[in-house]
Amino acid sequence: MREEEEVPPPRKIRRRRKNIDLTKAFGFPFGDKEWPVKLLVHGLLILIPILGSIIIMGWQRQAVAGIKAGEKGLPAIDIGKSISEGIAPFVAILNAVIPMTIFSFATICVSVGSLVGGILLAEEMNEGIFVVFGVLIALVSYGGIIIAAIIMMIIMPELRRRGFHGEMFPLLSPGKSIAVWKAQPIGYLVLCVGFLLTSLLGGLGVYLCYVGMLITLPWAHGANASLLAQFDMLLEDDPAPDGHDETAAAVSDTSRTPEDTQGHADTEVTDPKGMSALETLDIESSADLSALETLDIESPGDLSDSTAEQSTEDATPKS
After folding, report:
1. At 193, is the secondary structure helix, strand, or coil?
2. Terminus-to-terminus CA distance in the chain, angstroms?
3. β-sheet bridge partners, residue 13
4. Residue ranges of the domains in the chain?
């Protein structure tokens, strides 16, 4: 009669998960053999009012999807597809740009009005204090513009990311974005820094008689596509922001290439049923994951029973 063995507590599976690689993102557009043609064509398309922005966002959305699917290089030039893919992110960003534009215009009007009004009142009433009040109001107004610009810089990557997921009005559901920021605060900070750097570097084409912007601006969009794709993959590696634990992805994520799975930061995933006989694993490559997938484990008891049977057979003397 087999003795019942005490089942050990559930073990944890660790997988090394990468963080956002800025150098990889900056070099991504140049990994395509046809990068000069693709960047130049989209640089020319950007010059088209409104439609150019929709095309470049649709092209960027295709690049994000391609990177996540393991494809190499920039998307092919397909204006029709880029237009259809770019409408959602364009509307999503427009939701924030329009209020920001109205706020900035109103703030400038208040600033100019306060300065002019203060000067006129000071001359009429011979009181310099009105000029001081006008200057203070103008400074506060311009401070509001700076704060609004910083907020825009922070939320813009998230608006674009959600637009790439097909959401046209992400501002109406801020809870989703807050959950994302809580799930990956460091990753999102790196994402914002990457966007800031690409915007600065993308504007360097101005110094080449503006012609250089035909290359630098599309390059910035391509680099941002890599940044957004990497951040999306960070979110997919972690439990979903809405609280649904995606532990299966920690063991059977076969869609990643070895390059995508190497260099992952430690993330701990506990099997909800408890995998009693598994020791803590340090999974660094897809080969390790494939090795786990070959195990035919239907329940936690399978491992315990097989271990106990093996021990009994070893202890029984052979006749």
Report:
1. helix
2. 19
3. 269, 281
4. 19-247
Q: Look at strands 265-270 and 12-17 and give their pairing.
A: antiparallel
What gap in Å lies between CA 190 and CA 153, rounded to an integer? 13
Pairing of strands 281-283, 12-17: parallel
Edge-to-edge order in the sheet of strand 265-270: 265-270, 12-17, 281-283
The helix or strand, by DSSP H or E, that contains position 57, with its residue range, turns out to be helix 51-68
User: 35-46 vs 213-237: helix axis angle to the nearest 10?
Assistant: 100
Q: Is 123 left (phi over 0), alpha (psi -120 to 50) or beta?
A: alpha
Q: pTM of the predicted model, to two decimals?
A: 0.66
Q: Which residues pair with 266 in a beta bridge?
A: 16
Q: Please state, as a whole number, how many other Cβ atoms lie within 10 Å of the Cβ of residue 223.
A: 26
Q: What is the pLDDT along the chain (319 residues), one digit of tens a residue?
A: 445 556 555 554 444 456 899 999 999 999 999 999 999 999 999 999 999 999 999 999 999 999 999 988 899 989 999 999 999 999 999 999 999 999 989 988 888 888 888 888 777 777 778 778 888 888 888 888 899 999 999 999 999 999 999 999 999 999 999 999 999 999 999 999 999 999 999 888 777 767 778 899 999 999 999 999 999 999 987 654 444 443 333 333 333 444 444 444 444 444 444 444 333 444 444 444 444 444 444 444 444 444 444 444 454 544 4
CA angle (170, 20, 259) in 5-degree steps: 120
Q: How far apart are CA 282 and CA 32, in angstroms?
A: 34
Residue written as token pair 């770019």: 86
